[in-house]
Write a structure and sequence with these properties.
Blueprint (H helix, E strand, L loop, with lengths): L1 E5 L10 E5 L3 H19 L9 H14 L15
Length: 81
Amino acid sequence: MMELIKASDYTDANQTVMLYIRDIHNSRVRELEAQKQLELVAYLDSMTGLKNQLSFQNLCRECADRNAEQMIGVLFADLKV
């Protein structure tokens, strides 16, 4: 990330600026990893590890976006032990 900052003594006669450079790669990588973890929590059932209703809804949207004229079949099963 780069940013130009006016110096504290900046005037029309003294137009001094500073170039501020900061490496944000590591913080961005950590942010992306945290986002992936949140997505896992959002789309998987915590007890079974299977995809949940939100995951199913996203899959339905993706299928509908691909081809509106294609028929889709869905099978639901409730497994009891």
